[in-house]
Write a structure and sequence with these properties.
Helix content: 25-40%
Shape: globular
Number of strands: 8
Structural class: alpha/beta
CATH superfamily: YbaK/aminoacyl-tRNA synthetase-associated domain
CATH class: Alpha Beta
Radius of gyration: 15 Å
CATH architecture: Alpha-Beta Complex
Number of helices: 6
Strand content: 15-25%
CATH topology: YbaK protein
Number of domains: 1
């Protein structure tokens, strides 16, 4: 491992610190200088099944409430199913420029753990069948591997079929 990769592997994100404070087990994974931008590319770089690597999406409902949806990187969020899961008439993705002020995270590094405030969160039902899943650790290049039941200890969420 090169000096830069080792330094990166030793860095902790806020999401990791929150998990450690709550004594919730996880494994962190880093990827460096890969140019990986899409979730599918991240899964490939990590050598993981893309059905186990999840992306965190933030939406706004017709009511003005914000919602978080966590879906496999290989799938797309079905906005109709997502709206139904949170009892909204409709939901739409927020604009990229709204993400950081709202959540504290940037596009490509948004974690369901440690957002500025708690939002109603829904995880795709496919996560329930996995031993562990990967979610962003809150910074590009950092992923957290965690059991869905352990994630539920720090992020209150429900499961629903929310993908196309």
């Amino acid at each position: 491992m090169g000096k830069e990769a080792k330094k990166q592997a030793e860095q902790k994100t806020n999401a990791m610190r929150l998990l450690e404070q709550a004594k919730i087990p996880y494994r962190h994974h880093c990827y460096v200088d890969t140019g990986a931008v899409s979730g599918i590319e991240v899964a490939a770089v990590l050598g993981q099944d893309e059905n186990r690597v999840f992306k965190t999406l933030v939406t706004v409902g017709k009511s003005g409430e914000h919602y978080v949806f966590v879906v496999p990187v290989s799938r797309e969020l079905d906005l109709r199913k997502a709206a139904k899961a949170v009892n909204e008439k409709s939901v739409e993705m927020i604009k990229a420029k709204e993400l950081l002020p709202l959540t504290g995270y940037i596009h490509g590094g948004c974690s369901p753990i440690g957002m500025k405030k708690r939002f109603t969160t829904v995880v795709d039902v496919s996560a329930a069948n996995q031993d562990t899943i990967f979610v962003s650790a809150g910074k590009i290049g950092y992923q957290i591997e965690i059991k869905p039941d352990d994630l539920k200890k720090i992020v209150l969420f429900s499961y629903a079929d929310i993908t196309e």
